[in-house]
Design goal:
Elements lengths: L9 E8 L7 E8 L4 E6 L5 H9 L6 E5 L6 E4 L11 H5 L8 H11 L12 H15 L3 E5 L7 H13 L3 E5 L3 H7 L2 E6 L2 E5 L6 H33 L8 H16 L20 E12 L2 E12 L3 E5 L6 H8 L7 E6 L5 E4 L12 H6 L5 E2 L2 E7 L2 E4 H7 L16 H12 L6 E5 L7 H12 L4 E5 L3 H7 L2 E7 L2 E6 L2 H8 L9 H4 L26 H28 L4 H4 L1 H34 L1
Parallel strand pairs: 3-7, 3-8, 5-6, 6-7, 12-19, 12-20, 14-18, 18-19
Antiparallel strand pairs: 1-2, 1-4, 8-9, 10-11, 10-13, 15-16, 16-17, 20-21
Helix pairs in contact: 3-4, 7-8, 17-19
């Protein structure tokens, strides 16, 4: 008899589920073993959360069976929970525990930074999610199912959760957009794609290479099938009349090939996202000189100075509620400082991504949210929206962001978190901008959309102010990272998250609780002038940000040169204008933009290099 310890914790056999149209899941067989640490990945809308609910026993599939051995407990943390009937967040987290186990909830509440005595009606969505996560951790089931557990957690809380999951003996299945979190914890990957689930016995690291290889093999097989159909169809047209009786089998085979092609489910493309840079802003975007800001006895900033120049990406990290959004509002002129001066640059055109999605009306349809925006409305055209200066049909524009026509009239409240994020991106990408203010833009986005957003921001000609708890996202984009360390202290570091850790000289995150993170109350000068980085990292005569920029420019110049070469090769086709005029126009515009960007980058490199040498 097989030892119970080696028996699967959970088995799904022949699972099928559909909500009309193509099946969401079909013929799924899945086993979760003791000690499994599984990343569950896939596009938004692919069925990840639904599959997790089937695993939790909360959704009944159309076909197939779910098998759970006696005595095995499964805990599920979904994205939205019902707190009705609970007086406090702590009461909710303690629901299935004995009072003697209160300490379990207290430990989780301290690590996740929420107040267990808080009334759920007064708690934010993030606080309620943290309470749901604390409940799951305190109950300690043999199998944990976690759907986006890092949403609304600051970096210190994410690292605490990482350590907790790394040390647990329980198995877990994890849905997350946070690459660093997935890489640190997972040993296997489940990929949900067009109704099928593939398993790879390796963690999230390498998933994208595996996915691209699978897609390349699929494309090659489809290409071979198309060639075979084309050859058989040519035979049918040219010779069937002379061999009608003898070759009916071949005709039936051709029909079968066509049926095979028709049954293949087309991959969902990536959203057709693009930022349209407005006319360049002034070289100076914002300058804060000895700025202080408080709300009552709560200090947000104390004697803080910073200069942001055109083309920089400034990331802000720190505990929730420490004041990152307030600093964004100060830097964009939406709030005034208590002390000090703030000077904003000239010709700023700002687009804002709000983490609360407050710009979206949840009770209005997607159509109404776009056409009702004064910046997108087209006078006298109820079905048109203005997109970067050109009228577009609202449904056509929504399709570019992967929304079906049937969703256009649906209320925004019916959308998933990732779909709401895409709709908000559709709004802010419709207007030209040279300053992007992005407050937690990565929440709920799938890996493919996140990749595209990173690429677009990396090539954006303007300036980016970014609040994020996604360490990988910050590493890929930030030229400067502002670390909120509590009691009004904010320190600037060159580069992203990993650069901050290297300059700090340790692997720890900023303190989780502002009160414990405070430094001696000593007035600060301009952060870039403070010796925050190791001396070797700073070129003589340059600030840390400038030295980092000088180091990064050669790679940027090489990238621009390579892109220019590819565009010039494309435009060398003399027939391109006649054959594909739209492609020709876009390639010409792209070439001009990259040539201008290359000239600017080379000029910047020369200026910085000369100053570094002179210093």
């Amino acid at each position: 008899m097989r030892d119970m310890a080696q028996a699967p914790l959970l088995q799904l056999s022949g699972i099928g589920l559909g909500f009309g149209g193509n099946p969401l899941l079909e013929g799924l067989d899945l086993t979760v073993q003791p000690g499994d640490r599984v990343a569950l990945v896939g596009r938004n809308g692919s069925g990840k959360s639904t599959l997790m609910k089937i695993m939790a026993g909360l959704v009944e599939p159309d076909t197939g069976t779910r098998t759970l051995p006696p005595g095995i407990t499964v805990g599920y943390m979904e994205q939205d929970r019902d707190f009705a009937g609970f007086a406090t967040l702590g009461d909710y987290a303690m629901q299935l525990l004995d009072p003697s186990e209160q300490w379990r909830v207290d430990i989780a509440a301290e690590g996740l930074h929420f107040d267990p005595s808080l009334d759920p009606a007064r708690a934010s969505g993030g606080e309620r999610r943290r309470a749901a996560l604390a409940r799951l951790l305190a109950e300690a089931p043999e199998l944990m199912l976690l759907d986006e557990p890092t949403n609304h957690l600051d970096i210190a809380a994410i690292q605490w959760l990482e350590e907790r999951l790394r040390d647990t003996r329980a198995a877990f299945v994890l849905i997350s957009h946070d690459r660093a979190f997935l890489r640190a914890l997972t040993r296997a990957t489940l990929w949900v794609d067009r109704g099928q689930v593939r398993r790879r016995e390796a963690g999230f690291e390498g998933f994208e290479d595996w996915r691209d290889k699978v897609w390349a093999e699929e494309d090659d097989a489809r290409h071979k099938l198309n060639r075979k159909i084309k050859a058989e169809a040519r035979w049918a047209v040219e010779g069937i009349s002379a061999r009608r009786k003898r070759n009916q089998g071949r005709v039936r085979a051709l029909a079968a090939l066509r049926a095979e092609r028709a049954s293949q489910i087309k991959r969902q493309g990536t959203a057709a996202m693009a930022f349209d840079s407005a006319a360049p802003s002034g070289k100076l975007v914002a300058e804060l000189d000895h700025v202080s800001k408080s709300y009552g006895d709560r200090t947000i900033l104390r004697d803080f100075s910073l200069r942001v120049m055109r083309g920089e990406c400034v990331a802000m990290i720190g505990p929730n509620g420490v004041g990152k959004t307030t600093l964004l509002r100060l830097m964009t002129g939406q709030e005034q400082a208590d002390q000090g001066t703030i000077r904003l640059g000239t010709n700023l055109q700002t687009a804002v991504f709000d983490q609360t999605r407050a710009q979206l009306d949840p009770n209005a349809s997607l159509w109404e949210n776009l056409t009702g925006d004064p910046l997108m409305a087209v006078s006298g055209q109820a079905d048109q929206v203005m997109v970067r200066g050109t009228p577009r049909h609202v449904v056509g524009y929504l399709k570019e962001f992967l929304f079906d026509e049937s969703q256009a009239r649906a209320p925004v409240r019916s959308l998933s978190g990732g779909e709401k994020a895409r709709l908000l991106l559709a709004r802010i990408m419709a207007q030209p901008a040279n300053l992007l203010v992005l407050d937690e833009p990565t929440n709920d986005l799938d890996v493919e959309t996140l990749d595209l957003l990173q690429d677009l921001l990396g090539s954006f000609d303007g300036t980016v102010l970014l609040v994020s708890h996604d360490r990988d996202f910050i590493d890929r984009l930030a030229t400067t990272t502002l670390v909120f360390e509590g009691q009004g202290r904010v320190t600037a570091y060159a580069g992203g998250w990993s650069d901050y850790l290297a300059q700090r000289g340790e692997g720890a995150a900023p303190a989780a609780k502002p009160a414990k993170a405070a430094a001696p109350e000593k007035p600060e000068g301009t952060p870039a002038e403070k010796p925050a980085a190791k001396p070797a990292a700073k070129a003589k005569g340059l600030s840390f940000t400038e030295a980092h920029r000088l180091e990064k420019l050669p790679a940027e110049i090489a990238r621009l040169e390579a892109e220019i070469g590819k565009l010039e090769e494309l435009l060398s086709d003399a027939e391109l204008f006649t054959r594909e005029p739209v492609k020709f126009r876009k390639a010409t515009e792209a070439l001009t933009q990259r040539q201008e960007a290359l000239a600017a980058a080379e000029e910047e490199w020369l200026d910085l290099a000369e100053r570094a040498e002179a210093g």
